[in-house]
Amino acid sequence: MRDPRAFRWDAPDSDAPAGSSRVWTFGSGAVIFLAAVLRLVALALKPMHHDEGVNGFFLTNLVRHGRYVYDPTNYHGPTLYYFALPTAWLFGLNEEAVRIVPALCGVATVVLVLCLRRHLGTLGALAAAALVAVSPGAVYQSRYFIHESLFVLFALGIVVAAVWYYDTGRARYLMLAAASAALMFATKETAIITAVVLLLAWGVAWGYMRLAGSLSWAERRRDDDAGDGAASRIPLDDPARFVILFGGAVIVFLVINILLYSSLFKNPKGITDAVAALQVWTKTGVSEFHAKPFHTYLKWSGQEELPLFLLAVCGSAAALYRARNRFAVFAGAWAFGTLAAYSLVPYKTPWLMLNFTVPMALAAGYGISELDAWAARSGFKRKAAVGAVLGFALLVALVQAVILNFREYDNDRYPYVYSHTKRDIFPLLEEIERAAERAGTGEDTHIAVAAPEYWPLPWYLNHYRNVGFHGRPGAYTDTVVIGSAKEPEATQLRAQLGPAYRRAGAVYTLRPGVDLVLYVRNDVRGR
């Protein structure tokens, strides 16, 4: 038996054929490269979403004033802003600089999936990583300046670190799991859901593998991760070491959360606010805000992630039937447990799907690995058929990902495009820039935003020094006035501006149901 302390992230599975190291090297490199291309190319192509604009507002305050204060009643945790701070310092407050953080987290998630090779097999890990790499939703959310990509990376980090601790017994991996858990809790309040599901999935996997030992239909040729050495990983026979080890993990968890929620001790109240946030978001989860039917995620998965979903079902079923790999049972329980948990909560948004898309890929990868092993015993034609199934699934997902992320990124007929900013915002911004150039005032141009709904305009206008977000019609004298095209606000604004202003351009759709009009002072237009 392999010495668990010789464990490496790329340690091959025991059934790996000769030459698999070369396949692994080139395969994993290709998957990571593809994931990076899909996530990093043309990051500014898609307009900033409403939520990205809000996150950008907090980041702007942090960059310019060194201030971030956690607000438990509205937004999420601090990790997104502190992780984006270095790139904003280096490259400025622009879309590429802030979006590169979740994009790199998306690539890192693919890398972490590959770290599970020992438990999924060579083909299983490559297949799982490839499915995450080309998932339309995983790519789409990784190109958003929102919390979800970071959140799922940290959740997967807990799992990988815990597996490494199990395999080696080394304390540093337990500390890494604690740090990942701390970062997850410092990212979003939904961390409590993920934590509960992970614990339940672990319990299901452990109990099921023990139960399956007495079932005649379980084809238990081996159980890679259910050896007798497992008990030694938790030193219950050495109370002092147990206290030091797990006490250290608790300290790591607390220190990271305290540092981040207190804004590096500049806002001590943020620590208690972090606890209060759990109650606030419990109410949000059961409110009518973003409320949708129970089956919504199943419907959206069928529209955007069908190959992945079907392979995950097959992989989870294979894990239960074969009962030979505890981690595979855990992955299936994690995936579908998360799906069930988020389906039970009335609050539903498409970015939350990333929480079960990634573990579904793990289950799917295991299913591909098992199917390949069966096909290898049955002949070349069946083995080729398995490759064709995986290839077809990846091709379908890749085509969907390219269409969604590079062509239809603001088309709300696609589930992932959720109340997204339309590309109309770019001509609006260009018209403002032209007015500023004609006025000769540049970044000192006075701009009044009279529309009640205007996000993410604060992000796009953050380089102008004299912008007022009034949210209602008024008798403004600014160089540029942005108002709502909706009645009666449009008529009221036009009457209050009077003959001193003229409309510039057409009606600009900010997002579905929100149309804007632009007025420029006549003296500026005449220059």
Give a quick account of the main beta sheet: strands, pairing sense, barrel closure: 6 strands, mixed
Mean pLDDT: 88
Structural class: mainly alpha
**Rg estimate, integer Å:** 26 Å
Shape: globular
Q: Estimate the helix proportion, in percent.
A: 55-70%
Quote the beta fraction.
5-15%
Low-pLDDT sequence parts: 1-7, 9-19, 221-232
Oligomer classification: single chain
What is the distance, rounded to the nearest whole angstrom, between the alpha carbons of the first and last residues?
82 Å
The helix/strand series, from N terminus to C terminus, equals HHHHHHHHHHHHHHHHHHEHEEHEEEH
Number of β-strand runs:
6
How many H/I helices?
21
What report would you give on this structure?
- This protein has helices spanning 20-40, 50-65, 79-91, 95-114, 117-120, 122-134, 136-142, 148-168, 171-185, 191-212, 239-261, 269-285, 296-304, 306-322, 326-344, 354-378, 380-406, 425-439, 457-460, 489-497, 522-525, and strands at residues 446-449, 466-469, 480-484, 501-503, 508-511, 514-521.
- The chain has 527 residues and is mainly α.
- Strand 1 (446-449), helix 19 and strand 2 form a beta-alpha-beta unit.
- The radius of gyration is 26 Å and the shape is globular.
- Residues 1-7, 9-19 and 221-232 have low confidence and may be disordered.
